[in-house]
Design brief:
By secondary structure, the protein is an all-alpha fold. It has a single domain, classed as lambda repressor-like DNA-binding domains (434 Repressor (Amino-terminal Domain), Orthogonal Bundle). Helices cover 57% and strands 0% of the residues. The longest helix has 20 residues. It is globular, with a radius of gyration of 16 Å. The N and C termini lie far apart (52 Å). 18% of the residues are buried.
Amino acid sequence: MNHPKGRWRAEMPKRRDTVEQDNDDKPVAAERLIFAKNFRKARIAAKLSQRDVRDKTGFAQSWVSEIETGKMAITIDNMAKLAHCVDVPLWQLLVPS
């Protein structure tokens, strides 16, 4: 590879894991926001702070905040861990309210 230093990174596609990065992600962003809103409601109903979630799951509090605002993509495995933390079936956190 005879690329000038740093050129390879400039040619890499953008990550598509946040709501505001790509306008064509709107359907994904909408689904992400459904989970975000429902998880936050469930966490508050369970009388847990984001720090409590951190302590129960090992996830960083800042990451939990980004999930609750829909700024960060999340795997199905991590959704399941968060659902378990608030004692709500995962499918309920995926239903629009």
